[in-house]
Amino acid sequence: MYPGQGSQQPAMGEPWTDHPSWELVAEASDAAGRDVARLLLEADAEELTQTRNSQLATFVQSMVILDAVNRLGAEAAGHVGHSLGEYSALTAAGALDYSDAVALVTERGDAMQAAADERAGTMAAILGLSDDEVQIACSRAAGDVWIANHNAPGQVVIAGDPEAIDRAIEAAKELGAKRAMALSVGGAFHTSFMASARERLAKAIDRVDFRDPFVVVLANVDAMEHSKRDEWPDLLKAQLTSPVRWHQTLTNLDSAGFTTYVELGAGAVLTGLAKRCLKDSKRVTVSVPDDLDGLIEALAPSEEHASHQHLEGEHLFATERLVVSPAAGIFTAAEDIEAGSRVGVGHLIGTVGEVEVRSAFAGEVMGVIAVTGERVASAQPIAWLRTS
User: Fold this and answer.
1) What string of DSSP letters covers 97-163?
2) Could you read off the pLDDT of 244-258 as tens digits, one per residue?
3) pLDDT per residue over 152-183, tens digit each?
4) Is 83 a catalytic residue?
5) Residue 319, pLDDT score
6) Angle between helices 98-118 and 85-92 in degrees, nearest 10
7) What's residue 279's pLDDT?
8) What percent of the chain has pLDDT over 70?
9) Nearest partner of 120 among 143, 141, 136, judged by Cα
10) By CB count within 10 A, which of 23, 302, 380, 387 is most buried?
11) In 3-state terms, what secondary structure has residue 8?
């Protein structure tokens, strides 16, 4: 799970500066044309709260943490993100190239900032009412106010005109809300107030090549899985002016059999929502390098599923592995590498520029994530293996 705007914290990148995954920050700076390291290390709370800054910083922070998790050999069966976090999820699932994702997130932040500057809007959290009761409160406000986030049972965020928000807050209290409070945000996100941002972002999205996600990804707009590349451009466009159906997303994941939910990013907002929505789930937050040990422990098999064979190191924790790029450059797949291919340790997967990419594992290729002719970043996943 990948958080969205609002989870950012000053100096949130500091714990990761000595980690090998920090190299993704320089690549993001090149793609965005901005000093991302400064945002992650030096920006104060006021600067980081600005939409154009918070979105870029939050996305890159999640990608650094994801890269660190990938280096452990752990691989998720699915990815979901809240609002901005959907771009993180799509990048993690191989649907978006990292550089393309950075460029889109940069444009998204700029577009939403401009839309918020054009028309004043704000948001409010309503606690203790059902979604239908919150909708009634919005209707009673008699103005431009709508549900923006279905976060969890009894936790809904509304957005719209500031005066209409005030009226909706009063209506919610009359309906029995435990709390109803304005949020410190600079726009009415996920409403029609973002129409101009949607139009601007659509042009950037249309310039990007998407790929089929290689694992499950659910969309904010409808809380459903979408496995085809041609579905995602319109979903991302619609997302800006549609409510985030996070509660429904978690419920659908639970119905599909998912049991462990790992939040990658600053803070633990999504972990808390998972606790409210799915009380029997296993939940893990990875925000700093020290959290990686906790993730390994959470993913370790129980004694009843443990093999009788003695296993050591990372082989204890997973049967699937990622082959990652040792360098940055243009990727070319080896001729004999495709889904279903058998490989051994040292088998050539392809090349990145002049650098060979060889498998550190033996097994079956479940999918080739990188695309021949496209640039990959150092440590970016190239192929997905099931070990033998």
Assistant:
1) -HHHHHHHHHHHHHHHHHHHHHS--EEEEEESS-HHHHHHHHHHT-SSEEEEEEEETTEEEEEE-HH
2) 999 999 999 999 999
3) 999 999 999 999 999 999 999 999 999 999 88
4) yes
5) 61
6) 170
7) 92
8) 94
9) 143
10) 380
11) coil
| Distance, CA of 11 to CA of 26 (rounded, Å) | 16
pTM above 0.85, yes or no: no
Query: What are the two backbone dihedrals, phi and then psi, of residue 182, each rounded to the nearest 5 degrees?
Result: -70, 145
239 within 8 A of 190, measured Cβ to Cβ:
yes
Please give the structure tokens belonging to residue 374: 């496209």
Which of these, 155, 158, 153, 154, lies nearest to 140 by C-alpha position?
158
Q: In the 8-state DSSP scheme, what is residue 218?
A: B
Contact present, 187 and 143 (Cβ < 8 Å): no
Number of CB atoms found within 10 A of residue 267's CB: 18
CA 47 to chain CA mean position, Å:
22
Give the integer Cα–Cα distance in Å for 219 and 279.
Answer: 22
Q: What's the CA gap between 74 and 264, in Å, rounded?
A: 13
Q: Which of 83, 242, 287, 325 is catalytic?
A: 83
Buried b (16+ CB within 10 A) or exposed e, 80-110: bbbbbbbbbbbbbbbbbbbbbbbbbbbbbbb
Bridge-based pairing of strands 363-368 and 216-217 is unpaired
Q: CA 303 to CA 251: how far, in whole Å? A: 28
Predicted confidence band at 317 (pLDDT cuts at 50, 70, 90)? very low
Cβ of 139: how many Cβ atoms within 10 Å?
12
Q: Is 353 exposed, middle or buried (0-12, 13-18, 19+ CB in 10 A)?
A: middle
Residue of 79, 150, 190, 347 with catalytic role: 190
Contacting residues for 285 by C-beta, under 8 A, at least 6 apart: 262, 263, 267, 268, 271, 291
What tokens were used for 309? 């064979």
Q: Report, as an integer, the average pLDDT of 259-281.
A: 95
Active site residue 190: yes
Render pLDDT for 73-117 as a digit per residue (tens, 0 to 9): 788 999 999 999 999 999 999 999 999 999 999 999 999 999 999
User: What's the pLDDT tens digit per position in 351-383?
Assistant: 998 889 998 878 899 888 888 888 777 777 888
Helix axis angle, 162-174 relative to 131-140, nearest 10°?
120
